[in-house]
Amino acid sequence: MNALLLILGATAGLGLLFAGVYFIARRMDNYGIVDVAWSYAFGPLAVFYALAAEGWPVRRALIAALALVWSLRLGTHLYVRVLGHHPVEDGRYVALRTRWAANFAWEMFKFFQMQAVSVVLLGAAFLVASLNPRPELHPLEIAGALLWLLALTGEALADRQLAAFKRDPANRGRVCDRGLWRYSRHPNYFFEWLVWVAFFVFALGSPWGWVAIIGPASILWLLLRVTGIPMNEEQNLRSRGDAYRRYQQTTSAFVPWLPKKTRP
């Protein structure tokens, strides 16, 4: 199956999937589950490409495995978080209810469909790797796999450290500045972005691999400018006030780095 047919098949399948998720979200009255569906969708997409494309089987299996493991970990993490807060909805979707009040149902349905399209676009690395017939791994593919391992470990560790901090009642209202959170205010976001860098590096071992730059570039823009750090920082300032402002003054926002010394 050629690239165009693979893309069309993936887009159609994911469109149907996200339409189903939309109706589930509407029934639950919690549209935050789209984040869970988005995270889980990358695994099936990579597996579909691996099964339907005609590249070297070892490469197809490897990229599908990397995508599937990452997708399952992130999706499950978000599932626990979203369902753990249900029926309280993520603030982003509460805001969209107000913004789209005049035609909310249709606007939200389109939003869910755009998530399907975004999965296909961001999954370019999985496609180009699965189409590559070269019967050996390129050094960049090995480097990408090793970087993926580092990134996934860092992201999982950051999530675990934050969850442990929040479980302790003594930490209510305090700022988590332990472990990786001592060196970055958002280490989970940094390592999530690094996963996408790893997929891009892996894709560079294949013809047209450069198109996979859309993954890390888009995720970096979202994290730094749109729904990631800006919204998270606003919420933390509202809930933790001066404690979080002091944390901002000493700790890197994104890339882990040594904390600055506070002035006496």
Supply the key terms.
264 residues; mainly alpha; 11 helices; 0% strand
Provide a compact summary of the structure.
By secondary structure, the chain is mostly helical. It has 11 helices and no strands. The N and C termini lie far apart (66 Å).
Overall description:
- This protein has 11 helices and no strands.
- With 264 residues, the protein is mainly α.
- The longest helix is centred in the first third of the chain and has 29 residues.
- It is globular and about 55 Å long.
List the helices and strands and how they pair.
Blueprint: H1 3-28, H2 33-52, H3 57-85, H4 91-99, H5 104-122, H6 124-131, H7 139-167, H8 187-203, H9 214-225, H10 229-240, H11 242-250
Gyration radius, rounded: 20 Å
The oligomerization state is single chain
Low-confidence stretches: none
Helix content: over 70%
Q: Looking at the structure, what is the overall shape?
A: globular
How many H/I helical runs? 11
> From the helix content, strand content and strand pairing, which structural class follows?
mainly alpha
Q: State the total count of DSSP E strands.
A: 0
Q: Output mean pLDDT.
A: 93
Tell me the β content. Answer: under 5%
The major pleated sheet works out as: none
Q: SSE order in H/E notation?
A: HHHHHHHHHHH
Distance between the termini: 66 Å
